[in-house]
């Protein structure tokens, strides 16, 4: 005797069929971006660490004057800007993937992504402003804290 209300199972050898068809390769592009940005970030971060910790007096030389002198060069501004932007995009994409994997309810997923993207925008905008509006020679600062470029 067969029942007509029983659910039917598909043959396990049938090819996998997606439940929802998409025309976008967004997840593929995100995956490729994570790999490429990770390699570029390795170069940027280790270059940053080498210059800050190994060249000159090492960690003892890092102070306001060191950063002020470094950020007077457009090269180091662009270097640090690329490092900031890539690190923020890389991290945001990684956390977005985690939210998609573990947040089960759509409303929770939506709010987590809203907070994530808001944090991304705030940190990226503020970091960019700091890099490009940084004043290495502020008025009234003690002379021993200023970089040597301020006295030329």
TrEMBL record:
Transmembrane segments: 28-51, 71-89, 110-134
Pfam families, per the entry: Sdh_cyt
Gene3D superfamilies, alphabetized: Fumarate reductase/succinate dehydrogenase, transmembrane subunit (1.20.1300.10)
InterPro entries: SQR/QFR_C/D, SuccDH_FuR_B_TM-su
Subcellular location: Membrane
Keywords from the UniProt entry: Heme, Iron, Membrane, Metal-binding, Transmembrane, Transmembrane helix
GO molecular function terms noted in the UniProt entry: metal ion binding
UniProt keyword Flavoprotein, yes or no: no
Record keyword Ion transport present: no
GO cellular component, one term: membrane
Protein name per Swiss-Prot or TrEMBL: Succinate dehydrogenase subunit D
Provenance organism: Sanguibacter gelidistatuariae
């Amino acid at each position: 005797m067969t029942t007509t209300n029983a659910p039917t199972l598909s043959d396990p050898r049938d090819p996998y069929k997606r439940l929802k068809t998409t025309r976008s390769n967004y997840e593929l592009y995100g995956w490729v971006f994570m790999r490429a940005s990770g390699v570029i970030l390795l170069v940027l971060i280790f270059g940053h660490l080498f210059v800050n910790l190994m060249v000159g007096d090492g960690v003892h030389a890092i102070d306001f004057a060191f950063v002020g002198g470094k950020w007077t060069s457009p090269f180091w501004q662009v270097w640090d800007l690329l490092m900031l932007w890539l690190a923020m995009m890389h991290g945001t994409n990684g956390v977005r993937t985690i939210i998609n994997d573990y947040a089960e309810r759509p409303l929770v997923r939506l709010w987590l992504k809203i907070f994530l993207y808001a944090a991304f925008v705030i940190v990226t905008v503020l970091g960019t402003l700091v890099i490009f509006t940084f004043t290495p020679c502020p008025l009234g600062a003690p002379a021993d804290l200023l970089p040597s470029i301020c006295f030329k």
